[in-house]
Amino acid sequence: MSVAPNSQSPSSLIEINGVYKQYGTGVMAVSDMSLKIEQGQFVSFLGPSGCGKSTALRMIAGLESISAGSIHVNGHAPGKGPSGAQDIGFVFQEPTLMPWASVFDNVYLPLRLSGLSRKEATPRVEEVLTQVGLSRFAKAFPRELSGGMKMRVSIARALVTRPRLLLMDEPFAALDEMTRFKLNNDVLRLWQEHGLTVVFVTHSVYESVYLSNRVIVMAARPGRVVDDIPIIGSYPRAENYRTTESYAKYCAKVSDALTATLSSEDIDH
Question: What is the set of domains in the chain, with CATH numbers?
């Protein structure tokens, strides 16, 4: 059932109501998903492969059609608000950079597509490159960058349109642990500095607890929400947060919820 924009809670940036996604092959990727995400939250979707977490993210972005139900972002269908797609930034699993273009031009791309001249866009591009620590690499090309630096370019490109909502689809999965830790902290800093709402897809229990103030646990076949776990803790995270009793407690709770989805009878059907 579709929900009218004015029925949205004033503080809810995202409302997902009874959403289903079925592919032409008959595979039910997402089943009866209902969820509200408030402005300013950092929410992680966690679950096994095939649970529909990336599909759900793409539906929120308007990159994937919905078979049934409704999704509203700031009271509108995804990408249909007054600011259009610029209200939403998306960071993919791979950096997806143009190899022939400089770092500056890769970040400038969404502004160029929206009609902003290079001169008009330059201050905004320079600003986000500084925020992700790449101001000295504006003229570099992707082949000259490490994996972590490429992902920073991708994040800068997502932020240059000044979105309210940042969607991140396992952006750090292919990176080494130390780079991943550093980028986790960078994302938390940018989340706070920009006043963003972030929805983050991950396979990692530890990453989800470290980043989020809320973890949505999903099960597969069909993809569905099975638990919604609030993570209580202060930001920015303390240097020793990963060694605290609180962190261990939340990791155990989220891990138990995830393990339950893997051992449920319908996982093998």
Answer: 5-262 (3.40.50.300)
